[in-house]
């Protein structure tokens, strides 16, 4: 009895293209989270319409794009999720100095002494432990947080959560207001909440308010309209178009002027970024200490 011949190529081809044998596609990456609530009041009726008109995925993408756009156009002064930094505080702060020789006991903080520091190209003697910017009559224990901090959510020191009543946020300075002080150094290999570690979690920019949420919703609605073929109010990126004897010339690029063309959204942008800067301003000098802070997204 002869066996029925098999076609190995045909079998392999059938197996390869069998829908049951094809592995499922990997899930799409998660959308970015900017910790920015979105208020869709301006188009709530359309937003709640039939999902076949405005798909759920399109609305989720529109929210993410709207928040990302407003973060960018406000020069990153608004929004963003908490970040965690691991500060290593300077032992000496350049706040009080004398250019002539002095004794250790003559400094603002008696017994601490003076150390040479470079200020604007001139070597001067500086006192360690003096008051903050000359405005304090006593020693001030503080540290500078990067960015424009709006709220500190947690401070860990030596494995313990520091009571919020023990510190205060003064602009970008985290000031200790109890009898203790921030550590001068720490174990960078330890976890944030481990013994020997020092970590600060905070919002590095202004937290979105109700107006920010509303502006994001207004912009998100226009993004959905653009995606679904609706009548979108966002300006197109056309350099020149002639039609019916009329010539249109628009700025090339996406939001090339730093504004969206939506008056209500642009009012919010100009509130935070009146000069339409691309990002936060930075000042760098070889005479200025660049700091000893490591950070990451919280």
Kindly report the spatial arrangement of strands forming the biggest sheet: 7-6-10-1-13
Structure class: alpha+beta
Largest sheet: 5 strands, antiparallel
Radius of gyration from CA coordinates: 29 Å
Principal-axis shape:
extended
Give the integer mean of the pLDDT values: 79
Residue share in helices?
A: 10-25%
Q: What is the number of helical segments per DSSP (H or I, 4+ residues)?
A: 5
Number of strands: 13
Strand content: 15-25%
Give unreliable regions as ranges: 91-112, 129-133
Q: How would you spell out the order of helices and strands?
A: HHHEEEEEEEEEEHEEHE
> What is the rounded distance between the termini?
72 Å
Describe the protein's architecture and organization:
The chain has a domain at 30-80 and 208-272. The longest helix has 19 residues, at 210-228. The chain contains five helices and 13 strands. The protein is of the alpha+beta class and 298 residues long. The model is unreliable at 91-112 and 129-133 (pLDDT under 50). The radius of gyration is 29 Å and the shape is extended. The chain has helices at residues 8-16, 44-47, 56-73, 210-228, 263-272; strands spanning 83-87, 97-98, 114-119, 122-127, 141-144, 151-157, 160-161, 167-170, 173-176, 198-203, 241-243, 246-248, 293-297. Helix 3 packs across helix 4. It has a five-stranded antiparallel β-sheet with strand order 7-6-10-1-13, with no helix packed on it. Strands 2-4-3 form a three-stranded antiparallel β-sheet, with no helix packed on it. It has a three-stranded antiparallel β-sheet with strand order 5-9-8, with no helix packed on it. The protein is 20% helix and 19% strand.
């Amino acid at each position: 009895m002869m066996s029925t011949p098999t076609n190995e190529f045909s079998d392999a081809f059938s197996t390869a293209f069998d829908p049951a044998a094809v592995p499922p596609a990997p899930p799409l990456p998660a959308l970015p989270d900017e910790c920015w609530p979105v208020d869709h009041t301006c188009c709530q009726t359309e937003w709640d319409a039939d999902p076949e008109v405005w798909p759920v995925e399109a609305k989720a993408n529109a929210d993410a794009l709207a928040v990302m756009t407003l973060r960018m156009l406000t020069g990153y002064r608004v929004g963003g999720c908490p970040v965690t930094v691991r500060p290593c505080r300077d032992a000496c702060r350049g706040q009080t100095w004398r250019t002539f020789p002095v004794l250790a006991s003559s400094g603002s903080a008696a017994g601490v002494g003076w150390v040479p520091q470079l200020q604007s190209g001139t070597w001067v003697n500086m006192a360690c432990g003096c008051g903050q910017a000359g405005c304090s009559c006593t020693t001030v224990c503080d540290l500078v947080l990067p960015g424009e901090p709006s709220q500190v959510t947690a401070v860990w020191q030596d494995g313990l959560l520091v009571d919020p009543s023990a510190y205060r946020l003064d602009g970008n300075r985290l000031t200790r207001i109890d009898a203790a002080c921030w550590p001068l150094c720490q174990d960078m290999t330890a976890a944030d909440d481990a013994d020997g570690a020092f970590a600060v979690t905070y919002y590095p920019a202004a937290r979105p308010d109700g107006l920010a949420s509303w502006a994001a919703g207004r912009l998100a609605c226009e993004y959905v309209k653009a995606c679904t073929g609706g009548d979108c109010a966002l300006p197109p990126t056309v350099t020149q178009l002639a039609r019916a004897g009329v010539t249109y010339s628009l700025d090339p690029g996406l939001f090339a002027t730093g504004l969206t063309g939506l008056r209500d959204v642009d009012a919010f942008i100009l509130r935070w970024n009146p000069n339409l800067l691309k990002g936060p301003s930075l000042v760098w000098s070889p005479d200025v200490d660049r700091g000893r802070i490591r950070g990451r997204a919280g």
